[in-house]
Amino acid sequence: MSHRKQHTSSESSVQVSELATADWQQLVQQRLPSTLESQARALGAFVRVRRIQSASLLLRALLCYVLSLSSLKDLSMWSRLVGVTSGVISGQGWHKRLRQSLAWLLWLFGELLAAPPPSWSGPTSQRILLVDGTEVKSLGAKGELWRLHGAYNLLSGCLAWVQVTTRQVGESLGLVPVQPGDILVGDGIYSRAPQLVAVAQKGGYSLTRFSPHHLPVYAVQAPTCSSAYQVDVNSWLHTLAPGVYERNALVHCEQTTLSVRVIAIVPTPEKAEARQSKKEHEARAKGRKLSEQARFLAGFILLVTTLPLPQWPTALVIELYACRWHIEIVQPQMTKANVLASGGGGDHIADLHLLFRHDDAIDEQFNELSFLPRQFLLALNGCLELS
Predict the structure, then answer these.
(1) Neighbours of 370 (CB within 10 A)
(2) Pairing relation of β-strands 301-305 and 205-209?
(3) Sign of CA dihedral 218, 220, 223, 228
(4) Chain mean position to CA 336
């Protein structure tokens, strides 16, 4: 009498689960920081061993949830079936664990985006923070847009600060937790009097792109911020031949006056025309027409800084701003996988490569960065959805 063959699907499932577990352990050992477990405890993500034996297993469950599963109920079942947990954790229990993991994920996100410290010929006794922002789309077809603010530590090669806000909170140097002596480097969107003053009042220094339209500057002898003492930047630029120039000025914000240095990099007429044509093309792509004044200013590279002389001569200030391309490669690394709705925009640092660097460096850095930050940004979004 013939007998029906026994099903082997359960054995196959066990084998697949064991292979997946082995692959995960290998990834943890080879790609994740050695301090993963200790940081999870220090940042409150993994407080005690209860049904989850390690922080790496918590991370595995979190990634599975944001990448594959549709609900916390699914996570509860999956984690028990594959052996990630030693007992069933309710959806409410997972909800608590995921919310507690936010600070840990931010730390891990910064570690994975770390790059070898660059060759820097300037002072190294102060933190140099490259600041930028972008928009993050939450999970789902109609996901809400958040604003992701970040500061990249140039000398240590990793993210020093990340904050997620609603879109209504604009990019601002005032959001950055500044320590005395810090140097904050940002694009033109940060070139506003209240932001520069906020950094100075915390004991820090700033270096940003400069737009006369957004940041009026005044003569160093100006007793008030009346238009009679305002520097006519356009007239000054009309008198300059190709080269690098600097002048001192004042910035007024309410009752506060701040001394600044305005630096103008004047390219050759050919390069100025190329920059102006590029700016016109970008304006047309956005359905706008460039004004004559905006077109004229597009032919220059203008910087404003509170860094002091003689410790920071003009050439060194320009070299420092040229290093802002490091944050320009971190932001696209977070956006290029279509996780985000749009990039940070702003002033691209590639224009300084016309004078100082090779454009290929950015593409090389893209290829060197880890493949993992996309997953952790998704995990970060999963935690935000539950907050």
Answers:
(1) 16
(2) antiparallel
(3) negative
(4) 13
Contact 62, 101 (CB under 8 A): yes
Q: CB burial class (10 A; 0-12, 13-18, 19+) of residue 278?
A: middle
DSSP 295-318: HHHTTSEEEEE-PPTTTS-HHHHH
Q: Which backbone phi and psi does 321 adopt, to 5 degrees? A: -65, -35
The structural domains of the chain, with segments of one domain joined by +, span 9-108+373-386, 116-368
Q: Which two tokens stand for residue 26?
A: 């290998």
CATH code for residues 116-368 = 3.90.350
Tokens of 154: 């140039």
Q: What is the token pair recorded at 159?
A: 């993210």
- Centre a 10 Å sphere on the Cβ of residue 130 and count the other Cβ atoms it contains: 27
Q: Report DSSP state, residue 5.
A: P
pLDDT tens for each residue of the chain, 387 residues long:
555 555 555 555 555 567 777 888 887 888 888 899 999 999 999 988 888 989 999 998 888 887 777 788 888 998 888 888 888 999 888 988 888 888 888 888 777 766 666 667 788 889 999 999 888 776 556 667 888 888 988 888 877 888 878 888 989 999 999 999 999 999 999 999 999 999 999 999 999 999 998 999 999 987 777 788 899 999 999 999 999 999 999 999 988 999 999 999 999 999 999 999 999 998 899 898 888 999 999 999 999 999 998 899 999 999 999 988 877 766 655 544 443 333 334 443 333 433 333 333 333 433 333 445 555 656 555 555 555
**Cα separations (Å) of 143 from 62, 136, 339, 345?**
19, 9, 11, 21
Cα separation, 223 vs 351, in Å, equals: 36
Show Cβ contacts of residue 351 under 8 Å, excluding neighbours closer than 6 positions: 275, 301
Let me know: does 31 contact 25? Beta carbons within 8 Å.
no
Residue 75 tokens read as 């996570």
Angstrom distance (rounded) from CA 191 to CA 200: 13
Measured CA to CA, the distance from residue 88 to residue 79 in angstroms comes to 8
Q: How many residues does the chain have?
A: 387
> 226-245: buried (b, 16+ CB within 10 Å) or exposed (e) per residue?
eeebbbebeeebeeeeeeeb
